[in-house]
Amino acid sequence: METRTKEITYAKNKKIKLGVIPGHFATNHSHVNYYIDLNKMKRKLKNAKETAEVLAGIYSNTPIDTIVCLEGTQMIGAFLAEALSSGSNHSINYDSDICVITPELDSNNQMIFRDDTQPMIWGKRVLLLISSASTGWTIERSMSCLRYYSGELVSVAALFSAIDEVAGIKINSIFTPEDVPGYVSHSPAECPMCKAKQKVDALINAFGYSKI
Q: What structural domains does the chain harbor?
């Protein structure tokens, strides 16, 4: 499967790239015809820093107290907090002590924040940083969690997103389906690849893929 991988370069920064593999892939909530590989952006130091700089330019005029990182975006989140507070992007958050945290999942797979981290959410302006969004389900669950802890969600940032907004909140993404020609996402019940009896290549999530 790896031999089918192609790299796509971000138009505004040639150092930022994602990998795409065509096929038939299943997530918990949808079937897609491309696996979007974001590992270099999330896990390589230089790539993560370049990615954070791009996002810092988008959010230079957005007051942010806390960055909540999902799906392995913690390194990008830390670099983003540094870029926003350093003043290099003429940010409104210059010299701010921005918190960078990740929610815990309990035994029921519900997002929670422990008592000692709740002050970083309660009454704070929160940026939600996510790896990818195809249906918006994870974002909606996160929004519900933040409301419970009285956090104010100011925006959602994604490395790749197939959708523009969720519940009226705009998603700012670096890559979109326009960068991956032919990318489509379907519910499992409506998947044309399943109807054509095309074998599922792999199960995918934010951590990677597992071949079937």
A: 2-211 (3.40.50.2020)
